[in-house]
Design brief:
Layout lengths: L1 E10 L5 H13 L5 E4 L17 H10 L3 E4 L27 H17 L6 E2 L8 H10 L4 E3 L7 E3 L2 E4 L13 E7 L6 H14 L19 H16 L4
Parallel strand pairs: 1-2, 1-8, 2-3, 3-4, 4-5, 5-7
Antiparallel strand pairs: 6-7
Helix pairs in contact: 3-4
The protein binds zinc ion (ZN).
The site of zinc ion has 5 residues, from β1.
Amino acid sequence: MKQYLIRLDDACPTMDVERWQRMECLLDKYGIRPMVGIIPANADPKQKIDTEDSIFWQNALQWQEKGWAIALHGFDHCYISSDAGMNPLWTRSEFAGVSLAEQKRKIRDGVAILKSHRLEPKYFFAPSHTFDNNTLIALKEDSDIRIISDTIATKPYKQGDFIFVPQIGGHCVNMLLPGVYTFCFHPNTMNDDAFNALESFIQKHKEEFFGFDELDLNGVKRKSMKDKVISWLYFTQRKLRGIK
Ligand SMILES: [Zn+2]
């Protein structure tokens, strides 16, 4: 069986409201409930697109009430390290290589901001996908979050205290192997073609889309040998192609 999931990155009060509304309408039309990654205290100039939206937090609460999965997406979204961490997609990070004390502060303050708006994040993913073991320690000690949306694999797996729901690709692709696949989108930078491509994929594969709360994460096992090989191949070909 194949299960497709949608993740939306970089929600914050200065996001591109029009594009985000377009995405919300599109997903509502097909009854798809995505994960949305919210930046609690954005300071990244690239995410300052519109002027601050005074009803952003109300809208975010409506997402939660509609059953969207709420994820903590970093703290301020600023890269302060050139470490790649345990999911080395890029050599830049808000978390990987940063001291545990600083990471704990980011997690604690980020969760507190979301909670002050009555949002209950159950998931975490880092800007540029980069985090390290201290990020996991910080999440464990300073939050209730035990699910990470990231890493390369074909299905969720358990590692220590955490469940990882893998995330592959920035657009929809029909996958050949059975598994659970999260496609991530950045509504802030999507053009007409990207919206149209997403919609036509959903039309063809509507039955294969699920909400994160529909995943059966009970009894998830450790990463399989097959997934270890797939992950190794993925990062090796990326290295060979010189992508950092
Ligand atoms: Zn981001």
